[in-house]
Write a structure and sequence with these properties.
The chain contains three helices and 18 strands. By secondary structure, it is α+β, with helices and mostly antiparallel strands. The strands form four sheets. It has a six-stranded mixed beta sheet with strand order 1-9-8-3-4-5. Strand 14 and strand 15 form a beta hairpin. The termini are far apart. The relative contact order is 0.11. Keywords: Cell membrane, Disulfide bond, Glycoprotein, Immunoglobulin domain, Membrane, Receptor, Signal, Transmembrane, Transmembrane helix.
């Protein structure tokens, strides 16, 4: 018996596939899948319903020719080129006779979206087996596993003027996640620093984001991990902070300014009071001098009047 991969990719088969695609008999699907869950890859060809399975061949394989499942004359075979799909693929046996050759792919991983997975159906005729149907499935995988972990300054002492750090960590994300910060119940538009770790084997991302903010500007803090593909969001716990305290130096500075302004105000008040008292006293002295001068002028005038007739004689 020939190797099924050799039969699948023979020149005649390739030409037949191109002919199917050109005549519109090929179907393509894009399926969303979550990491760790099972997904069904559709492949339905009702035209073969009623035919014996011995007259049908079905190939499930990737673009790189890695066979997931192979149905040959009613016998299911697994001829894996790699171990990526080992013990992860299953037909729905009760539906095969109805022309439904969909495949159950178990325990989806991020790498499953790297290649298009094809379904090819051959039907026996007078000349042998010929291609009658093909389809392609492109998986769009997303995944998030851990609840975001938010860490703050804890019980460490800090003052209102200190800059404090908050760290948000999430593990096993796919694709690359987005970290958002919520400060005082509003989205924070700052620029926190981020550290990204990408596992080349699993394709998963670990991310850590550090937000630095002045203590006096924060009452509550929370971080959010957003999956950029399915837009799902997961929230960390919310950390709350009491009113911050000022340092001894910070307390002394306002007190000194208050004292300085108090002394200056008192000095100004005393100066103004002195000026007012001086003006009042000067005004009283002037009034006394005027009162004393009035009788003296009057007696002089009287004497002049009395002496005037004597001078004329």
């Amino acid at each position: 018996m020939k190797n099924p991969r050799a039969q699948t990719w023979s020149p005649t088969l390739i030409l037949t596939v191109l002919q199917i695609i050109g005549t519109g008999l090929a179907s393509n699907f894009q399926i969303k899948a979550n990491i760790g869950e099972n997904v069904t890859l559709p492949c339905v060809f009702p035209a073969v319903q009623g035919l014996p399975l011995t007259d049908i061949r079905v190939f499930w394989q990737t673009s790189s020719d890695d066979v997931l499942m192979y149905l040959d004359s009613g016998i299911v075979k697994r001829i894996h080129k790699t171990n990526r799909y080992s013990n992860r693929t299953h037909f729905f046996g009760e539906y095969l006779s109805r022309g439904n050759f969909s495949l159950l792919l178990a325990r989806v991983v991020a790498r499953d979206e790297e290649e298009v997975i094809h379904c090819y159906i051959q039907v026996k005729d007078n000349t042998g087996f010929s291609m009658r149907y093909s389809s392609g499935v492109q998986l769009e995988v997303s995944g998030c596993f851990s609840q975001p972990l938010l860490e703050g300054p804890g019980n460490n002492s800090y003052t209102c003027k200190d800059s404090i750090n908050f760290t948000c960590t999430s593990m096993g994300e796919y694709p690359k996640p987005q970290v958002e910060w919520v400060v005082n119940h509003e989205k924070h538009h700052g620029h926190p620093s981020e550290t990204l770790d990408h596992d080349l084997n699993t394709k998963l991302f670990n991310i850590s984001s550090i937000l630095t903010i002045t203590a006096s500007a924060v009452e509550t803090v929370q971080c959010v991990i957003r999956n950029t593909r399915n837009q799902k969001m997961r929230y960390s716990v919310q950390l709350s902070f009491p009113n911050c305290t000022y340092s001894t130096t910070d307390k002394e500075k306002p007190a000194l300014w208050i004292i300085a302004w108090g002394v200056l105000g008192l000095a100004l008040l005393m100066a103004v009071s002195g000026i007012v008292i001086f003006v009042i006293l000067k005004s009283r002295r002037t009034s006394s001098s005027d009162s004393a001068n009035v009788p003296a002028d009057r007696s002089t005038s009287d004497r002049s009047t009395e002496l005037a007739p004597l001078t004329q004689k």
